[in-house]
Each structure stands twice: as structure tokens, then as C-alpha cells.
Design a protein that fits this description.
The protein is mainly β and 266 residues long. 4% of the residues lie in helices and 33% in strands. The protein has 1 helix and 16 strands. The longest helix has 10 residues.
Length: 266
Amino acid sequence: MQRFKGSIRSATAAPTSNISASGIWTPTEAMQAKQAGTWPSAGTGGSIALNGSSQYLTATAAQSPPTLGNNLFTIEMFVRFAALPSSAGLASLCNQQGDFRFFFHGNATPGNGILTIWQGATIRWQTSASGIVANTWYHICAMRSNTGATTTVCNIYVNGVQLAKTTNTTTSVTYTSTGMVIGSELTQYYINGNVTNYRYVNGTAVYAVAGFTPPTAPLTNITNTKLLLLATDSGTFTNDSSTANAGGPYTVTNVGGATFSGTTPF
């Protein structure tokens, strides 16, 4: 196998290691480095490890959070799948089978999984192949960048690359719950792997619509941030680091005993 010299955190490093690889890249790692510009090599923070069968997080607001409605929004996270799922819930702003749901479906050949946004029981946006494979960190983002009265555009990105998608337009994205679910859809569609730097921004399209260089450092509490999970250390890895919510940060509940991992994309 052809390999490339450089300095990047290796997808083949031990799962709990924060040590960067300083000698070799696989072709996949080299491609990611090219997309990301300069992927950092030093470990920063950590991630939330999910077992794929019973673990997820719920986040409940002290007061009912503002609905997405016709707002601009950005929902992003870094994800590393230990095994590609047939379906896995990345983020649900709802109760089970409720309103807004952001899914990764990986039951195709590795590298050809799709990302889907549901509104209720209807698929609104669905991508073509995402390129995602197991044991590699990806920045995954759903972002709405317009508030048109008749057509609402939501784009989906992997490592800053806008994916081609089918579109079933909707003028409003709603949800009825005061909380969010991260890593599953409650009792089904679990993520087997790691999640970190989950950020939900309601009111801002954070990135350039055509594509962008993915973040190379932990995300920050920017304007309109409603939930921010940085997984900074083992003692606070499920804490909400946002400060924008009336009534204080979200209360995050660790369901099933998800654990802290030193594995990080940074």
C-alpha cells in the first residue's frame, strides 16, 4: 500500500491514544489532510464513546428552546464510527420518531453511506455517497443557509465538502420536544463509535454554503449556540459548554453509561 510522509493523527493509532502519527499517512488520511488544509497533530480534549447498543445522550433545556422554524441553523459534530451502522441517529431534535432527525445510513458498501434529514415521517434531504468509512474521524454538518418563503435549502457536508443531495422542500423545520437526542433515536439506531464537539446553532449559517475547511481545533461558544458538547475531560465530558440559553445550559443525561475516551480528531 502506498503511504505518505507527514504529521497527522493516524486513524490506525490505538483508540485511546492522543499521540499524533509523525511518520506515515494512509491514502485516506492524506485525502483528509488535503481537504482539511492543516489537520492538527496534537491531542486536545477527548470524545464520548458509545457502544452501539444501549448508549446515547439526551439534552433537556430549562425552558423550551426556540424551534428551528424558518431560522438559519447549523448542526455539526465530529464522528468516528467503530463499525458502520445500518442506520444511526446523529442528532434528533425530537422524541423518538418525532420531528427533525439527522441520520447516517451506512448499510451500503463502506464509503457509500448516505446522510439523511427527516422532518416527521418524511425524508426532506438525502445525500449521495458520503465517503465515510470506519475508524476515521469526520466532521459532519447540516446547515440551512436560506429562509425562503417557498423553498428551504439545507445542505449536508462531510469534512467541509458539500454533498450532492435529493431535495424535498419544506418551509419550516419544527420539533415539539424541549430536548435533543444525540447518538441514537432513543431506543434504536445507535452509534457505535465516538462523538465530540457537537454544536447546535439556531439562527446562524456558520459556514460558506459552497464548502469550507473543517475546524482544526475545538469548537467555541459562538453567537446563537444552543448546545455545545466538547468532551473536554473525563470529569465533565457530558457538560453543555454553551451559555446562550434562557435558564442556563442544557441538562445532559448520559443514558446507558457512555464513557469518556481520549480519542480525538484534534
